[in-house]
Amino acid sequence: MRIFLPLLALLFATAAPACAANPDALWQIASAQCLPNSINAGDPKPCALVDRERGFVILKDIVGAAQYLLIPTIRLAGIESRELLKDDAPNYWRYAWEQRGRVGAALGRPLEPSQLGLEVNSAAARSQLQLHIHIDCMRRDVPDLLRAHRRDPLGKWMPFMIEGHRYWVMRLEADALQSKDPFKLAALRSAHAANAMGAQSLLLTGARFDDGAEGFYLINMPVNFDRAEFGSAEVLLDHGCAIAR
């Protein structure tokens, strides 16, 4: 059965907790369309890319000016999937960061690393039952807010407040994604986080520090239902990409 992307875009682009009409829509696109089309016809459509060797597809999300999604080609429900914490797990974050240039290409202008973000929602703040990493523009104000952490110790989780909401932030070196996986770093923040990965959301964005060195900020927003926080660091992204204007 053919799946129409304009309709599906409405199902999986939202950051609010919801029950999608078809929570398997992303998995069906990746596994039943993009992957077989790539194998049988050499054409990844409706995806922009199928990487069979490393096991992921890149799909342009119709909602948003330049939003892309990385979707694994194996069945993984989301951030809570224990397979992501195995020693030999693929580093989907590294693969997604390699694809960040697609956002600028869609906008017709290159973006600085600090203007770009990757994000995964918690189980409570997603509508799809297939892991996907959002690749999009950062909210315009967030890079300046993060500069308060430009001297944080590398590799250490520090508290971070935005608009009264509590996050955790970790400063990472430029080559961090070669040896570090953000899923595993989140699990190391605390025993609770490790045992409740489904209650975490993560965002990774580029950074430039005081000494001119480049690197990353990794942000963790846990679920806190008492404060109506559903674990959606996606609120720090801007699908309209105002930061590019």
Question: What's the gist of this structure?
Answer:
Helix content is 22%, strand content 23%.
The residue-averaged pLDDT reads 91
CATH architecture: 2-Layer Sandwich
Spatial gap, N to C terminus: 40 Å
Round the Cα radius of gyration to an integer and report it: 17 Å
Integer count of domains: 1
> Approximately what portion of the residues adopt beta-strand conformation?
15-25%
User: Helicity range of the residues?
Assistant: 10-25%
Described by the principal axes of the CA atoms, the overall outline is: globular
Low-pLDDT stretches = 1-18
Q: At the first level of CATH, what is the class?
A: Alpha Beta
Largest sheet, described in full? 9 strands, antiparallel
- Order of strands across the main sheet: 1-2-3-5-4-8-9-7-6
Provide the CATH superfamily: HIT family -  CDH-like
Overall strand count:
9
Number of helices: 7
| Topology as a string of helices (H) and strands (E) | HHEEEHHEEHEEHHEE
CATH topology: HIT family, subunit A
Q: Quickly give the structural class.
A: alpha+beta
Pfam families: CDH
Protein name: CDP-diacylglycerol pyrophosphatase
Subcellular location: Cell membrane
Catalytic activity: a CDP-1,2-diacyl-sn-glycerol + H2O = a 1,2-diacyl-sn-glycero-3-phosphate + CMP + 2 H(+)
